Amino acid sequence: MTKKLFLILSLMILCTTIVWANSMPIYMSEYPSFNIAPMEDCPIEIEKEILTFDINEEDSTIATVTAHYKMLNPTDERIELPMIFPFVFDARKGNISSVTVNDRPIEFAVKRVGDVNGLDYLKDKEAFEEAIQIEGIIQKINEPVYQMQSFNEDADITVYSFDFNDEQEGRCEISYNINPDKTLVVINGFNGYGQISDGKCTVSKHISKNHKKASIIVLGEDTLENLEVIEGHEVNIEKDEVVLKDYIIEQLIEPEKERYAINNDEEIADAYGVVAEYIDQLYNNGARVLHDEDIIYSLSYQQNLSVMLYEVLFESNSSLDLEVQYFTNATIDREKSEDFTNTFVYLLNPAKGWAKFGELDIVINMSDRHPYIIDSSIPLEKGENGGYTASLKGLPEDDLIFTTYTKEEITFIDRTKGRLFRNYFGTLLLLIIVGVVILAAVIYSVRRIIRNNRKKL
Fold first, then answer.
1. Which of 193, 277, 389, 402 sits at 20 to 30 Å (Cα–Cα) from 200?
2. Mind listing the pLDDT tens digit for each residue in 79-120?
3. What is the DSSP code string of 204-266?
4. How many CB atoms lie within 10 A of CB 285?
5. Nearest Cα to 39, choosing from 321, 356, 353, 313?
6. CA dist., res. 353 & res. 136, Å (int)
7. What is the distance between the alpha carbons of residues 363 and 388, in angstroms, rounded to a whole number?
8. Helix (H, G, I), strand (E, B) or coil at 42
9. Any bridge partners for residue 345, and if so which?
10. Taking a C-beta distance cutoff of 8 angstroms, is the pair 445, 410 a contact?
């Protein structure tokens, strides 16, 4: 019997381990940072780039990147060169910082030029590189601003404004009907909404002292009818008309200019194109009721590949210093370790557009929390101050990819602890099963001893 118990125990451990092996690891991808590129063929040379990563002491998944370029115009002519700096825009992180020429800030515009939403450079390098081809980016820059196709952006739309009069807090629900073949509804200020069937829709709102207003905006033909308060508060309803494009710009985009780094008319037009294209996509996919917050949030994840556009004047036979500074985030990974590994990626490929690339110096200043680089695509030397450096002649073939960690290497113990952490519930189940089986074995053994002693008596 004891042998049978041990056999059962072994099988249970094996089965539990299989579940353990299939448990989900902890992994969160982030986007790479980029090098600068010219928008057209030019004779300008990069004599030297000094690339510095300053990893944040408080959060070692964040680094301030400073790319300092010594650039040369070897010709006898003045050149005014349009340049781009690609980046993946994220409103949550504010990754735009500054561009300077000879220590003086220069103006730049931001334009959205592509979509890398959901692409992971470390998991699928080929797909990511396909989405960020410089030729495609430049082509997108030169395209006109997108114009809405589903609705006439210069036509009037109807706005129903709701003012809830009650002083008491509470819930209000309103129902209405639309013709889904002719109308798209955008709601503002309501907490919930739904489309039931045959064009019947509802909206709801929690009324409070500071939240008493809301609106329903009708795009296309105004087929809204049977507007009825089915629960809640007294409400005043006003009906007005406004031009569709003006509404999107004035009511959706301009209030969010700071959040989405929209600084001028050109960037407003660019943002409008993103929103207009997103509305078309949703409408063509069958959506007939949208929330305005969902629409404006499209500026974060639709066409999130962006570029900073700026012009630099190069005097004849002279050099200048150009510097770009911004924040970048690491991909965090706990698939094979106790602590997270942080992997930073810097794409050097855009710099291949320059006439010549001289030297590349890399400086990585570590944080106390993640003081070690355990893997790098480019050989690095550790200095006395704990940082890492490299000095290269010419542009390397590989992009810069380096991984930081809390220790000098991921040990067997780290990997084992990592598995235990990732599979907490599987491990807990294993321990419970082992405990139950051992307890059963002990009880069986004790009862057997007692029985044998009784027989002897």
1. 277
2. 999 999 999 887 655 556 789 999 999 988 888 888 888 899
3. EEEEBTTB-EEEEEEEES---EEEEEEES--EEEEEEEEEHHHHIIIIIIGGGTTTTT--SHH
4. 7
5. 353
6. 14
7. 6
8. coil
9. 401
10. no
